[in-house]
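Listing S7. Sequence submitted for prediction.
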Amino acid sequence: MPAWLPILLFLAGLALVAAEVFFPSFGLLTILAASCLVGGIYLAFEVSATYGTISVISIVMLAPMAWYWAMKWLPRTSFGNRMLASGPSFVDAESRRGTSAALARFEGQTGRALSMLRPSGTAEILDERLDVITRGEIIEAGEPIAVVEVSGNRVIVASAAAPRVDEYSD
């Protein structure tokens, strides 16, 4: 038996391992790759035990390397670009800011609680109904409130009837 036949099967098996990454075949190419590699190992042991042992060690090292190389190059191909999801786009960063621009206009405004705020509920500020939250206090419906902070999509309010903690000074 020629000594080059196992090497040919090894190369075919490694090529099929890489091809499985680039062309998903639902395992068909993997089965063919495994068949080539196992057949190459069998034929290498037919040549000699040393040749077979060296072949097994080589395949154990080269098959994962072929898979890794193929996975590394996949995103660089046009097929890989269409198949893999892209990362986040930073073009529309304005919409992901910490405070919503639509809610920022309510900061410092006053209104009244439409429902009991314990600590969250509904309020009317600038003739708009908003979901609001307090800093833990309970505010009765109809009581005047003031927006103390807008953070992200949260509108934080406090009772406008009682003095706020930050208004005290020594």
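Caption to Listing S7: primary sequence and predicted structure tokens for the chain studied. The beta strands are 110-113, 120-125, 128-134, 144-151, 154-159. The two ends are 100 Å apart (CA to CA).
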